[in-house]
Design goal:
- With 163 residues, the chain is α+β, with helices and mostly antiparallel strands.
- The protein has a single domain, classed as Glutaredoxin (3-Layer(aba) Sandwich), CATH 3.40.30.
- Helix content is 34%, strand content 25%.
- The chain has an 8-stranded mixed beta sheet with strand order 1-8-7-4-5-6-2-3.
- Strand 2 and strand 3 form a beta hairpin.
- The protein starts with a helix and ends in a 12-residue tail after the last strand.
Length: 163
């Protein structure tokens, strides 16, 4: 019982310490990366091949997700709402579903529509190349093809990521 109490106190102190550092803005949850984005060839839901290289000269947001992920659904709805503004700013959005067949995704998108292209990473190889550990994950690629950052949510000021 004494060890359990110590463990709880330790976890509480750790939580308070981490929270205070976050509150002071000393931890940036966005991972700054600055490396060249790996090219890929993925099929969209119609079987057409899409390559990252075809968007050279444009800022790109890769949105890694899956239909079974509750947080991905929320992020998909949010991203869909912001898509017109992103498109107006010349930012390309590519949704990359990890590990699911196209028919399952098509059925899912009837309830949660996406105006941006949805690509199929059936084997998860592209997600692995981009070091996706959890989903949803956003990868921000600048017009030069460099990964500027990755995050698990769309930052409020997403256009500043590309600067």
């Amino acid at each position: 019982m004494k060890n359990l109490s110590r463990s709880i106190v330790f976890l509480f102190i750790l939580f308070l310490s981490f929270s205070s550092v976050l509150a002071m803005g000393q931890i940036d949850k966005t991972k700054q990366v600055e490396k060249i984005a790996p090219n890929f060839n993925l099929s969209d839901l119609d079987g057409k091949t899409v390559t990252l290289a075809s968007f050279k000269g444009k800022n790109v947001i890769l949105f890694f997700w899956a239909t079974w992920c509750h947080f991905c659904r929320k992020s998909l709805v949010d991203l869909e709402g912001k898509f017109p503004a992103l498109k107006d700013k010349g930012i390309v959005v590519l949704g990359i579903d990890i590990g699911e067949p196209s028919q399952k995704i098509k059925n899912f998108l009837q309830k949660y529509p996406a105006s941006f292209p949805v690509l199929l990473d059936v084997e998860g190889g592209i997600a692995e190349e981009y070091n996706v550990i959890g989903i949803p994950t956003y990868v921000f690629i600048d017009a030069k093809g460099n990964i500027k950052s990755t995050d698990n949510s769309l930052p409020t000021n997403y256009t500043s990521v590309f600067k």
